[in-house]
Amino acid sequence: MTDATPVFIDAASKRFGRGPGAVDALQDVSLTIEGGSFFTLLGPSGCGKTTLLRLLAGFETPTHGRILLGDQDVTALPPNRRPINTVFQSYALFPHLTVARNVGFGLKMQGIARAQLDARVDRMLALVRMQDFADRPVAQLSGGQQQRVALARALAPEPRVLLLDEPLSALDLKLRKEMQIELKRLQRETGITFVFVTHDQEEALTMSDRIAVMSAGRVQQIGTPREIYAHPANRFVAGFIGESNFLPVTIADGAARIGDHAVTLSAPAGPGKATLAIRPEDILVDPAATLSAEITDTVYLGNAVQIMARLDDGTRIALRQPAGADLPANGQRIGLRLPPAAIRILEPE
């Protein structure tokens, strides 16, 4: 539909207020978003992701730094002069207008000729699979249908970048999963650069080509979903993306010591105190293993069994087994094997 436009955020900072009460919402953030990609800003509430999205849209101006679309510096441009559209969490549709008139509203404001406007609206409704609802008032639509209309309206002016501010948060779980697939399909078919904001790690892992994990106004790690999940850069990322066990260890002679037990490492690590991170699904139950634990609780999750256990030194550890496995009893002792390839050594807090 349009040329793939890269986005460059160059050392952007944003401070709200002055003096002792000032808040640094963003601190020296630099990002390169590849043109035609699905890029996600992921993090907890208050991490700065929505502020960064507002800088891209032009609703806020950075205190320092620049925003570029391709080779065009848009830092000082108002929203209406940027080739960017935004889909908001609330959708912001006109309830008294039909689906078609909602989608064509922005085109009408641009003065596009009627025949061209109608053709564009038809094409957008076909893209989001809502052509059969063109004459229906949006007030009569479900939440998922309204979201599709909001997407069609945002795509109709053929922006070079589409910003999505947690647009799935109001949907129920089943519909949210369906719309994750639909959003990725729309991004592929249009070729537009999508920048998506969410606090939901599953959304980010499902849809994104690349993810920027944010915390306290800074980017903690940038990478593909697989890179971020399998190779977290620090404890925050390891804890925020999926579940992780964090075990205090001492590194010596190429091994990590948990109490009296030595765990082999696949990569060298400096000597001293550190934190061993491992996902619950990567821990293996092995009767021959010398690391033992006592089961304190089990939870049936449908597709898996979550086991909580306590090591001999009192450290708590979680592991996940396939649903077909027998549920062990509380108080039972089991041997645990930590595969070296699944271990990440992090600096202690």
TrEMBL record:
Reactions catalysed, semicolon-separated, are: ATP + H2O + polyamine-[polyamine-binding protein]Side 1 = ADP + phosphate + polyamineSide 2 + [polyamine-binding protein]Side 1
Q: Where is the ABC transporter domain?
A: 7-241
| EC number(s) from the headed UniProt entry | 7.6.2.11
Q: Which InterPro entries does its entry note?
A: AAA+_ATPase, ABC_SmlMolc_Importer, ABC_transporter-like_ATP-bd, ABC_transporter-like_CS, Mo/tungstate-bd_C_term_dom, P-loop_NTPase, PotA-like, PotA_ATP-bd
Asked whether the keyword Translocase is assigned, the reply is: yes
Mind telling me which SUPFAM superfamilies this protein's record contains?
Answer: MOP-like, P-loop containing nucleoside triphosphate hydrolases
Question: Known Pfam families for this protein?
Answer: ABC_tran (PF00005), TOBE_2 (PF08402)
Q: What does this protein do?
A: Part of the ABC transporter complex PotABCD involved in spermidine/putrescine import. Responsible for energy coupling to the transport system.
The entry assigns this protein to a family as follows: Belongs to the ABC transporter superfamily. Spermidine/putrescine importer (TC 3.A.1.11.1) family.
Q: Which NCBIfam families match?
A: potA
What is the protein name given in its UniProt record?
A: Spermidine/putrescine import ATP-binding protein PotA
Query: What is the organism of origin for this protein?
Result: Paracoccus stylophorae
